[in-house]
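Lab meeting, item 3. Inverse folding demo.
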C-alpha cells in the first residue's frame, strides 16, 4: 500500500533572532493532511515562532533567520515567494484583525482581491455565505454585510477572520491560539452592553423592566444570558428573569408590597397573581402577622414596633416596645443615635454596614 505524503514537513527547522538567541531548535515533524495537529508547550517555548515561519511572517524582519526545511506538499516553503505561500497557507492570529476599511462582505473576499482573482457576483455571494456559515456567523450578520468588519463584537471579528482564511481554501490553516483572547473581549462587550442598559434604566426612573406575569423562583425561568450573541462564552448563566436588569416579581414577602413596587414605577402586575396570593397561597408577611399578639399589633400600628418581628427571617425583633415605658421614646432615639455614631470604623466591612442600616 502506497504511503500518504504528509501535507507539511519540518526538517531540522531552526528560527533565530540573533546569532546567540535561537527560539526554535532543530524541529523535525510530519503533519498528515486532513488532520488537526496541536503544538503544545509552555509560554515562550517557540510555538508561535514556528507557526509564523510556515507562513513566512519572519521575512518581514531582517534580523530573523529561518534555517532547515519546511516542506508544503514536497515544496520547500523557504525558497518560495511569500504571496505564493500565503495563497496556500492561511493563518488566524491570537487577536482578531479584520481589515478596518473593508465591509464584512469584502473582508471574506479580501484574499481573492489581493491575489487578483476575479469572481462573478454569484460566486462571491456563495463564497461569503459558505464561509460565514462554516463559522456560525451567517445568521448574525447576513443583514449587515455592508457594515465594516470592526462593527462586530470581538468574538464575531475573530470568526470573521477565520472565515476570511477559509475563503481561499488553503492547503493548511494555521491557528495561533485564536480563542485565547475571546474571554476578555467577550467580557468587555458584556460590560459595554450592561452600561448601555444601566443608562436606559436610569432614563426610565430606576427600573428598566419588570416581570408582571411570572413569580420568581428557582425554576420559573430558563437559563438567561446577558448577551445572546456571546452566550456560548459566558461563564455564569441564569438571571432572575429572562432579560438583563428585568426586575423579578417576588410576592412571598407580601403581595401588597410587591404590587406597590410595580405600580410605583408604572407597571401593573397580573390580577391573577393577586388572587393566588390572597386566596390560595399564604405569604411570609401574612404568616408573620397571624402570630402577632393583640398587644404587638397595637405597638406595630403605632410605629413603636418597627418592621416584622423576625426582620425578614433573621429571627430578631427590630425595636422592643417594652423599653418605651422605662426610658421614653426620646431617650431611645438618643441612644440609637449614639450607637450609630459609634458604629463607624476606619475599615468598614459588610457586617458594619448591616449594623448601621439596622440602627
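The presenter then showed the designed sequence:
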Amino acid at each position: 500500500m502506497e504511503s500518504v505524503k504528509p501535507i507539511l514537513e519540518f526538517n531540522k527547522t531552526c528560527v533565530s533572532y540573533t546569532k546567540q538567541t535561537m527560539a526554535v531548535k532543530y524541529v523535525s515533524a510530519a503533519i498528515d493532511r486532513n488532520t488537526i495537529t496541536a503544538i503544545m508547550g509552555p509560554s515562550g517555548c517557540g510555538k508561535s515562532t514556528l507557526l509564523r515561519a510556515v507562513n513566512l511572517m519572519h521575512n518581514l524582519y531582517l534580523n530573523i533567520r529561518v534555517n532547515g526545511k519546511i516542506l508544503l506538499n514536497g515544496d520547500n516553503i523557504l525558497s518560495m515567494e511569500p504571496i505564493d505561500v500565503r495563497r496556500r497557507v492561511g493563518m488566524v492570529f491570537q487577536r482578531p484583525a479584520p481589515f478596518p476599511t473593508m465591509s464584512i462582505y469584502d473582508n471574506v473576499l479580501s484574499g481573492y482581491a489581493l491575489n487578483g482573482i476575479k469572481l462573478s457576483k454569484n460566486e462571491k455571494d456563495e463564497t461569503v455565505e459558505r464561509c460565514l456559515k462554516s463559522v456560525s456567523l451567517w445568521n448574525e450578520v447576513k443583514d449587515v454585510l455592508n457594515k465594516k468588519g470592526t462593527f462586530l463584537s470581538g468574538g464575531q471579528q475573530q470568526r470573521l477572520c477565520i472565515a476570511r482564511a477559509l475563503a481561499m481554501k488553503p492547503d493548511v490553516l494555521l491557528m495561533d491560539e485564536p480563542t485565547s483572547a475571546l474571554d476578555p473581549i467577550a467580557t468587555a462587550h458584556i460590560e459595554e452592553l450592561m452600561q448601555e442598559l444601566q443608562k436606559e434604566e436610569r432614563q426610565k426612573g430606576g427600573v428598566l423592566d419588570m416581570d408582571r406575569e411570572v413569580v420568581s423562583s428557582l425554576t420559573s425561568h430558563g437559563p438567561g444570558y446577558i448577551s445572546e450573541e456571546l452566550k456560548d462564552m459566558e461563564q455564569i448563566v441564569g438571571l432572575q428573569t429572562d432579560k438583563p436588569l428585568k426586575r423579578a416579581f417576588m410576592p412571598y414577602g407580601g403581595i401588597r408590597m410587591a404590587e406597590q413596587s410595580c405600580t410605583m414605577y408604572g407597571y401593573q402586575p397580573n390580577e391573577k397573581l393577586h388572587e393566588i396570593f390572597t386566596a390560595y397561597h399564604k405569604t411570609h408577611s401574612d404568616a408573620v402577622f397571624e402570630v402577632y399578639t393583640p398587644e404587638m399589633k397595637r405597638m406595630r400600628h403605632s410605629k413603636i414596633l418597627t418592621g416584622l418581628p423576625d426582620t425578614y427571617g433573621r429571627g430578631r425583633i427590630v425595636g422592643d416596645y417594652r423599653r418605651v415605658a422605662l426610658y421614653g421614646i426620646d431617650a431611645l432615639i438618643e441612644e440609637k443615635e449614639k450607637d450609630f455614631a459609634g458604629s463607624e470604623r476606619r475599615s468598614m466591612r459588610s457586617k458594619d454596614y448591616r449594623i448601621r442600616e439596622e440602627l
